[in-house]
Amino acid sequence: MPTIEPSFRLGLIGTGIVGDLHLRAARNLPQVTVGAVCDIRADAARSMAEEAGATAYTSHREMLARERLDGVIITSPHNLHAEMTVDAAGAGVHVLVEKPMATTVADCTAMIEACAAAGVTLAVGHVLRFSAHAHQAAALLASGELGPVHAINHRRTAHYERGSRPDWFFDPVVAGGGIVMNVGTHGLDRIQWLGAGEVESVHAHLWKRGGLDIETDAIGVVGLSSGVKASFLFTSAGLPFTDETVVICERGSLRWSATEGTFVSEGGTERQIAPGGDHPVAAFTEQLADFADACTTGRPPLVGGDYGRSVVAAVLAIYESAGHGRPETVGSALLRSTA
Ligand SMILES: NC(=O)c1ccc[n+]([C@@H]2O[C@H](COP(=O)([O-])OP(=O)(O)OC[C@H]3O[C@@H](n4cnc5c(N)ncnc54)[C@H](O)[C@@H]3O)[C@@H](O)[C@H]2O)c1
């Protein structure tokens, strides 16, 4: 096999659970090399840098000033995404930022504007788009075999008790919210993608378990710009792991379960079209390949800043609706948050 010289020099900001997945993805791509790694935890930065053959930093600003990087991947706590993206753009470095893009719409807009002004790519890590099984589901819906989509139901479980994830996820300021802002952004991405529209209206109810300051459970309905209606349940109620979306179409339905696989039902019988259990590193690898290619060629990434902002706007409208107990439109929630 011909050897491909690395041509895309990457910096990783954040060496936690997801930082590690991005490093493993980078190793799968001969055109990408990880040149620098940053984490405020010096030991963690050093350890990942050693593994990657990269230089370790504890300040992202110092890393950006000293290194010649093509792109950075930002996997820090949610409320740091905006500042780090704007700093990277200021240094002329392309950005792939983890979901949720930021904790406010104003921050998302600042990130989009900073990257546009600097002429750098901004991609948002809605990694689901790069899952092979997700593509099969979306392709089947696009083929028209099942007719138009009418409604979507999404259910997702996640642990939300202290100790189940790093502490900052339980801080409403740092995380920007609880299960909806964190795990729900994957579900809202699925709903928007499969429903072919952006969330326009929401009616949601949230609750908290275990004396936490962030919501641990949420249930609600959303209306999409395509006319599709969707319901969601994000819960920490201790059910067996579930990550399942059912898409109700005119002539049948599609059931996409992360664990069981993807199924099509027509006339009362269900047939499997894809197995469950996508390997996460494979999707992260596809995502990074898309990012590096977008940066190199100048084409837009598959998931850009405007889309990332639409997901954050939907989350914030869910919080507004749950706060006053009535339906809410994304537009008026945004107006209120900027007033
Ligand atoms: N795409 C996915 O499937 C997926 C899955 C889980 C988490 N995430 C997202 O990835 C991001 C990180 O989540 P995680 O689970 O890896 O969290 P984590 O806590 O394991 O990692 C975050 C890292 O950021 C570091 N950090 C904090 N402040 C910093 C600073 N100022 N400079 C540099 N480093 C700093 C922390 O020390 C930590 O190592 C979040 O946005 C999260 O929502 C995405």
TrEMBL record:
Source taxon at top rank: Bacteria
InterPro entries documented for this protein: Gfo/Idh/MocA-like_OxRdtase_N, Gfo/Idh/MocA_Oxidoreductases, GFO_IDH_MocA-like_dom, NAD(P)-bd_dom_sf
Domain Gfo/Idh/MocA-like oxidoreductase N-terminal residue range list: 8-126
Ranges for domain GFO/IDH/MocA-like oxidoreductase: 136-255
Protein's name in the database: Dehydrogenase
Organism: Nonomuraea angiospora
